[in-house]
Amino acid sequence: MPEIRQPRKRTLAAVIGAAAASALIGLTASQEGVRLTPYNDALAHDVQTVCFGDTTVKMRPYTLNECKAMLSDRLADYAEAVRSITPGFDALTDGQKVAVVDGVYNFGLENYRGSTLRRMYIAKQFPAACQQFYRWRFVAGKDCAVAANGCGGIVTRRNLERAACLGE
Fold first, then answer.
1. Structural domain that includes position 18
2. CB 25 within 8 A of CB 32
């Protein structure tokens, strides 16, 4: 029997705009990859994960359509949270919104809350703020720019966020 889900208050498109929502889903999905059955995420200290990196749902097998719906809902949650602690969020470019919401989805809202990245976003210090994404290349104490650490996908993701932020 499928889980009963409460309707969302606001869709991702309502929070960040349709074009940004489409770009964000594309970026996040491409970087997270999808797993329809739960697995232990070794880069995140073996946290149980499913679908597109989701750690907040019941760990069970999902269909691809369920995973896509969850990703959109989860990104809407993150976009609303980022928007609420980033004054001036609505005036950002689509690329700046995509970059920061994807980053926060990956490295966490609490990490963003006290970050230089957030302070620079609030101060509209672009393009310097965009350069901050590269600083988030560490996972479990490992510098993902070092090939031997086996987490180079993080560097790729940070470069994509930086490019989106800069409008490239």
1. 12-166
2. no
